[in-house]
Write a structure and sequence with these properties.
Elements (H helix, E strand, L loop, with lengths): L11 E8 L3 E11 L2 E9 L8 E11 L7 E7 L16 E10 L2 E8 L9 E2 L32 E11 L9 E7 L5 H6 L9 E10 L2 E8 L3 E10 L1 H4 L22 H10 L4 E7 L2 E6 L9 H15 L6 E8 L2 E9 H8 L5 H7 L1 E3 L11 E13 L8 E13 L4 E10 L23 H4 L3 E15 L2 E9 L4 E10 L6 E13 L7 E17 L5 E9 L5 E11 L3 E10 L13 E11 L9 E8 L15 H5 L4 H6 L7
Parallel strand pairs: 15-16, 19-31
Antiparallel strand pairs: 1-2, 1-13, 2-3, 3-4, 4-5, 5-6, 6-7, 7-9, 8-9, 9-10, 10-11, 11-12, 12-13, 14-15, 16-17, 17-18, 19-20, 20-21, 21-22, 22-23, 23-24, 24-25, 25-26, 26-27, 27-28, 28-29, 29-30, 30-31
Length: about 650
């Protein structure tokens, strides 16, 4: 039963629900925005076609609960109506409005449902005055089916649903136990049409829910008075599960004498020993400058990195230095240069000042000019990726798991050389729907050919970065950009220093890589792709919404909306949805015109089982599609500039002295 409760911001969960011998629901949910919940679901049920029922569910919060009233949400199940148009498909689709209110330990919910959620038909559709589809019966066995946006809130009748949840007092190890009583508007109409003798049972269900840990949720219920329900889910909440550093900030002592002060090179060495990404340092008169590159990409907030760097300068620089400058950026491209007064930092370190007072006298500029003695950099990292596809009709779940070992070098300022080896684990991509009818000119529907090898070259490229003028960054790239495509590309990004918006343009000429060759390409399969992008940041740049319009790898034109979140501990959550004019006649028609995905990225440090640090990525997305496919660019400019930029610095400034 839907409720008006939302998951924790930035969290991601996945699980399985079994309803007797009737339904099996596999689902992965994420909370990409505080007011938006997205769920990818695939359901198995007894039917004539032996097909599963994938769906994309959305829930929007319209109002938070407070002392003046309940929480209010509006949502829908299977909102896109994807898949084959067959009688009985869309049987789980439905829309709803729900309110939830908590009194002490009891949480009450009441709502109004359409579609599957409205089959009990208690009331006439309140939208029937609009006429047309809002007056017609929403029959799941009809063909052609009424699904997707054209079916939202339609139907002749609607139903009420509701329930109560009692959060029980802790009983020893059974802390987190709750008792639920629910009344549903779902009467299993599609199943009754498939099986004339099927008995849906009563409207009422009684169950228990238990959270033995912050990351686990178990449930059991006796539903409709006829069948048992069992549920298991696991979750990741960045507010609870993030690995935050406990490293104390550097101490600031009395200014050293002229003879005891360190040189610029020695200060950079000390900064690196403290875990800061120091590339170079300079002392020029009364200004001491330290370059952090790459900045803002680790577990510390950017302002904390800047604060630690400024503390080291204040503690180690010669006594005549009065201004401390910290330049943040990546790959030799400066994003911001922050200058602090040394006396302000000394007072704050002695508990006689604050980050707010330092902000009043701080000066932030686009750059501080070229740094001396630029230090080449060589990074080795790993990336563990588990990708799940819940959008297939022939199976409820497909998965792909691989580990990338990546090497990136910056021998001179602006030049980036990157390469990565991919180790593929066992997958079941042979179950993808696109394998049913191989395409003549596939875009990604031939993905199974690329994952068969246990070891492959994922990418090998060279890129030249430049900063022609303040706010403008450019990139020229050449090589193998990802496991399926290589070629040449160019990108430009413009973002004024303090702007919350940015404009980008990328153009690429690509060739399909041959899966049986390390560097071989199919010269007869050339493709042109490119996008114009608009980025909009929330204050603090912890949330960015991107709108991209352009030409995709299959030659189809369309647009993508992408939401990118950043949380403490370096955790990232992204969600995207793409809609295009669809694949052409030589490409797979399975999957339609839409591509979507969710991804949670968690940084990991070096350990006994992982000698090199990196990231772990868990994703749910459509795999093996031909429509709406973008190049997986290994060095996008926005991702390069934002971590060390003004927005992220201003948004985390309160943690400068933490």
């Amino acid at each position: 039963m839907p409720t008006a409760r939302m998951a924790a911001d930035g969290s991601m969960s996945g699980g399985l629900t079994a309803l007797g011998d009737l339904h099996r629901h596999y689902a992965i949910s994420a909370q990409p925005l505080p007011w938006l919940e997205v769920t990818a679901r695939n359901s198995a049920y007894p039917g004539y076609y032996g097909l599963s029922e994938p769906g994309l569910d959305l829930k929007f919060r319209l109002r938070r609960e407070d002392e003046h009233g309940p929480a209010l949400v509006i949502g829908g199940r299977d909102v896109t109506g994807s898949g084959l148009d067959l009688p009985g498909k869309g049987r789980f689709a439905g829309e709803y409005i729900a309110l939830s209110r908590r009194w002490w330990d009891v949480d009450l919910t009441v709502g109004l449902g359409w579609g599957t959620l409205g089959e009990a038909g208690h009331l006439r559709n309140p939208l029937r005055f609009l006429g047309g589809r809002f007056r017609r019966d929403r029959d799941p066995s009809a063909w052609p089916t009424s699904r997707g946006p054209e079916a939202w809130f339609s139907g002749e009748r609607v139903a009420l649903f509701g329930g109560a949840e009692w959060h029980m007092p802790a009983m020893g190890p059974l802390e987190g136990l709750s008792l639920k009583l629910e009344s549903s508007g779902d009467r299993f109409r599609a199943q009754r049409q498939d099986e004339p003798g099927f008995d849906p049972g009563s409207r009422y269900s009684l169950g228990l829910s238990w959270r033995p840990a912050s990351w686990a949720d178990l449930g059991a219920a006796y539903e409709q008075g006829r069948r048992m329900m069992l549920r298991l889910s696991v979750r990741f909440d960045p507010a609870v599960d993030a690995d935050r550093t406990q490293r104390p900030p550097p101490a600031v002592g009395p200014r050293p004498s002229e003879g005891a002060a360190l040189s610029a090179e020695a200060i950079a060495l000390v900064a690196r020993s403290r875990g800061l990404p120091a590339r170079s340092a300079r002392i020029d008169g009364d200004v001491a400058t330290l370059w952090l590159d790459p900045a803002g990409g680790g577990r510390l907030p950017l302002a904390r990195e800047v604060g630690d760097a400024a503390r080291l300068l204040a503690d180690l620089a010669p006594p005549q230095v009065e201004r401390l400058r910290v330049v943040t950026g990546a790959a030799g491209i400066a994003s911001a240069a922050t200058t602090l007064l040394r006396r302000d930092l000394e007072r704050a370190a002695g508990h006689r000042g604050s980050s707010e007072e330092i902000w009043r006298t701080a000066v932030i500029e686009p750059s501080a000019g070229p740094s001396p003695n630029w230090r080449p950099r060589l990074d080795l990292s790993t990336r563990l990726v588990a990708t799940f596809d819940l959008a297939e009709l022939g199976t409820t779940l497909t998965q792909r798991t691989h580990t990338d070992v990546m090497l990136r070098g910056e021998p001179v300022r602006g030049l980036v050389l990157g390469g990565g080896l991919r180790m593929n684990a066992a997958s079941d991509l042979d179950l993808l729907d696109t394998n049913a009818l191989p395409a003549a000119h596939p875009v990604r529907s031939d993905l199974p050919r690329y994952v068969d090898r246990p070891l492959s070259l994922d990418h090998a490229y060279a890129a030249w970065l430049a900063n022609p003028t303040d706010g403008l960054t450019t990139r020229l790239s050449l090589g193998q950009f990802e496991e399926m495509y290589g070629g040449i590309g160019a990108e430009a990004l413009y973002q004024p220093l303090a702007a919350r918006w940015a404009l980008g343009l990328d153009l690429n000429r690509l060739w399909k890589r041959r899966p049986d060759s390390l560097f071989g390409i199919d010269r007869g399969d050339a493709r042109g792709t490119g996008h114009a992008s608009l980025y909009w940041e929330t204050p603090g740049a912890d949330t960015t919404t991107a709108l991209r319009l352009g030409r995709y790898l299959g030659g189809d034109w369309g647009g993508t909306v992408e939401v990118m979140r950043r949380f403490d501990g370096g955790i990232g959550l992204t969600a995207h949805a793409t809609w295009t004019e669809g694949p052409d006649g030589a490409q797979s028609r399975f999957g339609g015109r839409m591509d979507w995905g969710l991804a949670l990225v968690v940084p990991i440090g070096a350990s006994g089982w992982m000698p090199v640090g990196g990231t772990v990525e868990t994703a749910v997305r459509t795999l093996g599609r031909d429509a709406g496919q973008r190049l997986q660019q290994p060095l996008p400019l926005y991702d390069l500039r934002v971590p060390g930029g003004y927005g992220r610095l201003a948004g985390t400034w309160s943690r400068l002295l933490n």
